[in-house]
Write a structure and sequence with these properties.
388 residues; alpha/beta; Rossmann fold; Cytochrome-c3 Hydrogenase, Chain A, domain 2; 2 domains; five-stranded parallel beta sheet; 36% helix; binds iron/sulfur cluster
């Protein structure tokens, strides 16, 4: 066999006799397969893994899920339900058996709580626990109660019989906005409530529905979590800095920045670093997969607002929104002429090349600078930040 050839994948079993037949929430077998193939590609997995995910998503037996809410705005659930791409929310809600959800359940009061307990007993050791929202630990946890019991008790009780625990959103992952200084209720993420139990964190405010669904599909298919980072975030979604995938990155490297909302640079789509963009210190895949599922560019930076670092505990709700980010991989190109800088006030090309080499920019950005400075001198322009 030719080792350089990709093995043929037999899709026929997964597609079935009628690929156009609805199978999950109105989605056809073909759509589910296409979606799962996309999920696999996003996670860096093979097409064969996508087929296995599709089979797991369409399996008759659906894994039971218990979904608890703590201190939060319900925005994570809202984000899932507002997904518009073919039936993402249907895939989520139909792929799993959402046996209990604090805010979506039809029943109320004691009736709802009794049902939750019945489902937890029935599926003990087999259900997935999803936590949404932070958990207040101060003063015995009295600042968040459901049915007269603290969130601390409820999370610990539900986690005991769970096969896996997923914390969705920044509040459940690390405390979120209510944990901002001075953290009056002692809010923490789920992992701090049940130490010793693995909690897969999918932070974001709200997180992308795709990251949650991809994590869930991986868990259901392979019966283990996807590869996680040191904060137990799936690496496929949180393995790279936003700054490294941003569509405005070329502007950063070339020294083209928006300095005020609505200025010339902002209108031309320049880099938002100087408006406080936290992309350089935030790990997430927002620029790659979009956000809110309404098409390309549908994420904060894509719409002209700086990223505020919602996936990072040390950034969101702690650093002022318009404060400069800590650039983790490269120094900001302060050596470059800025918007409005008069010709001749920048550094020399030689000095810039040295700085570029130190920052790892010598080949790409250094060349851009030399080209930019050269063209500015040739055409006599006094706006060295104009597009080449
Ligand atoms: Fe994009 Fe922000 Fe980085 Fe600029 S600073 S390239 S806008 S992530």
């Amino acid at each position: 066999m030719d080792a350089t050839r990709t093995p043929q994948i037999d899709y026929s079993a997964c597609l079935g006799a009628d690929p156009g037949a609805p199978v999950r929430g109105g989605a056809t077998r073909r759509q589910v397969l296409q979606f799962c193939a996309g999920v696999a590609a996003t996670m860096g997995l093979s097409s064969a893994a996508g087929v296995r995910m599709a089979e797991a998503a369409m399996a008759p037996a659906r894994p039971p899920v218990i979904w608890l809410h703590g201190q939060e705005c319900t925005g994570c659930t809202e984000s899932l339900l507002r997904a518009t791409h073919p039936t993402v929310e249907s895939l989520i809600l139909d792929t799993i058996s959402l046996d209990y959800h604090d805010t979506l359940c039809v029943g109320a009061g004691q009736q709802a709580l009794d049902y939750k307990h019945a489902m937890m007993a029935k599926h003990k050791g087999a259900y997935v626990l999803v936590t949404e929202g932070g958990t207040p630990m101060k003063d015995g946890g009295i600042y968040c109660k459901v049915g007269g019991r603290t969130q601390v008790e409820l999370v610990r009780e539900a986690a005991e019989g769970a096969a896996a625990v997923i914390a969705i959103g920044s509040c459940a992952s690390w405390g979120g906005i209510q944990s901002a200084d001075p953290n009056p209720t002692g809010a923490v993420g789920t992992h701090a409530v049940i130490p010793g139990k693995l909690v897969i964190s999918v932070p974001g405010c709200p997180p992308s529905p795709y990251n949650f669904l991809s994590t869930l599909l991986y868990l259901l298919t392979f019966k283990r979590p996807p590869e996680l980072d040191e904060l137990n975030r799936p690496k496929f979604a949180y393995g790279r800095l936003i700054h490294d995938n941003c569509e405005r990155r070329a502007h950063f490297d070339a020294g083209r920045f928006a300095l005020e909302f609505g200025d010339q640079g902002h209108r031309q789509g320049f880099c938002l670093y100087k408006l406080g963009c936290k992309g350089p210190e935030t790990y997430a895949n927002c620029p790659a997969i979009g956000f809110g599922d309404v098409g390309f560019g549908s994420w904060p930076v894509g719409t002209g607002h700086p990223c505020y670092g919602c996936t990072e505990q040390a950034t969101a709700f702690r650093k002022p929104i318009y404060a400069l980010a800590t650039v983790k991989t490269l120094l900001p190109p302060t050596a470059y002429p800025q918007v409005g800088t008069q010709e001749g006030s920048g550094v020399s090309p030689g000095a810039a090349a040295v700085l570029g080499a130190v920052g790892g920019l010598a080949v790409g950005a250094g060349a851009m600078l030399l080209k930019q400075m050269g063209s500015a001198k040739q055409d006599g322009s006094d706006t060295p930040n104009k597009e080449d």
